[in-house]
Amino acid sequence: MKIIVTGGAGFIGGNFVHYMVNQYPEDMIINLDLLTYAGNLETLKPVENAPNYKFVKGDIADREFIFKLFEEEKPDVVINFAAESHVDRSITDPESFVRTNVMGTTTLLDACRKYGIKRYHQVSTDEVYGDLPLDRPDLFFTEETPLHTSSPYSSSKASADLFVLAYHRTYGLPVTVSRCSNNYGPYHFPEKLIPLIISRALNDEELPVYGKGDNVRDWLYVTDHCKAIDLVVRKGRVGEVYNIGGHNERTNLEVVKTILKALGKPESLIKFVTDRPGHDRRYAIDPTKMETELGWKPEYTFDTGIVKTIEWYLNNKEWWEHIISGEYTKYFENMYGERL
Ligand code: NAD
Ligand code: TYD
């Protein structure tokens, strides 16, 4: 099979490309990525010379480019990871999220319609369901939970999901959608909570925790997500949505304290800062459909995955030190300057 993976120079896409290139030597993996601030070819070093791997630089929202690529490559499968993915950036610049996340998705869907496809898979997020109250630990997101978004990011992802499902119903396009909870692991860009805390704690810098730190996220180790997507693409039913998560809920403060303890750093580094506007309180996935229909089970708990992740950041300092020394300095100043 020839598989186009979009956004494969980012965090989850990069981990997915590693997994697929090694797992399926008979398949050809084409990594299509625009290399925005979040895309990094260093992440692909371990597979860049593999015979079943190829990198193409390009924009999923560039119609002419995408149609030409599909004409040339005639892919069997398209798995769309490419996105603007950071909630805080979506609050300052919503339009780039509409362009990539919505129009990029419809461009890919149109190319799939024109050139034919065995499967289009949309990598979505549990954030499309909005949030759950902190005092109702009995509530979880199922595939039937209504879409009810809070941020420009989640609104753009929900919109894309609706287009994907509409292309199935209207044009019969063979699509699947997966909605995963928060990921963590190797190659995670240090604007997101876990890599930001690890990298700053290692440099003895203040650690910004929004509000009271009591918001809850449901953390999944990234390779468990990659394996789940592979299963959905190969065995999932067309037109269906699958929720992916492993019941690993933690408050943000618990996450930060766990990292500090593992690194032997003091809790005095924690600084409570002004909250994110519209901050979602709790995400929590009910993964029953993945488990019963596809037999998926995550390999890592938060306690085992976070140890592996911290080890990776300790052993791969050049990967993230390179990032935080460039443009990122300006981003951090703009986003946190007045708060810290
Ligand atoms: P990321 O920001 O690390 O990577 C995104 C990648 O997409 C980058 O390599 C970037 O260069 C590329 N990209 C951006 N715009 C593009 C465009 N117009 N054309 C081509 N490539 C473009 O994101 P991530 O955290 O790896 O997330 C990947 C996907 O998974 C996203 O769709 C996201 O919504 C979804 N998701 C993420 C999480 C999470 O916890 N990170 C959880 C659930 C779902
Ligand atoms: P993040 O990694 O941005 O993922 P998401 O917003 O998509 O869940 O944030 C995870 C949680 O951590 C979220 O509740 C916001 C919080 N957070 C902080 O407290 N401080 C920070 O500096 C960042 C980036 C996030």
Could you name the key traits of this structure?
single chain, binds thymidine-5'-diphosphate, dTDP_Gluc_deHydtase, lyase, 13 strands, dTDP-glucose 4,6-dehydratase activity, 340 residues, 43% helix
In short, what is this structure?
Keywords: Lyase, NAD. The protein has one domain (2-339): Rossmann fold. It is built from twelve helices and 13 strands.
- Using the alpha-carbon principal axes, give the shape: globular
Strand content: 15-25%
State the helix count: 12
What is the number of strand segments? 13
CATH class reads Alpha Beta
Poorly predicted regions are none
Topology as a string of helices (H) and strands (E) = EHEEHEHHEHEEHEEEHEEHEHHHH
Number of domains: 1
Q: CATH topology, what is it called?
A: Rossmann fold
Written overview of the protein:
This protein is an alpha/beta fold and about 350 residues long. It has a single domain (about 1-340), classed as Rossmann fold, CATH 3.40.50. About 45% of the residues lie in helices and about 15% in strands. The protein contains twelve helices and 13 strands. It has a seven-stranded parallel beta sheet with strand order 3-2-1-4-5-6-11, sandwiched between helices. A two-stranded parallel ribbon has the order 7-10. α1 links the parallel β1 and β2. It is globular, with a radius of gyration of 19 Å. The structure holds nicotinamide-adenine-dinucleotide (NAD) and thymidine-5'-diphosphate.
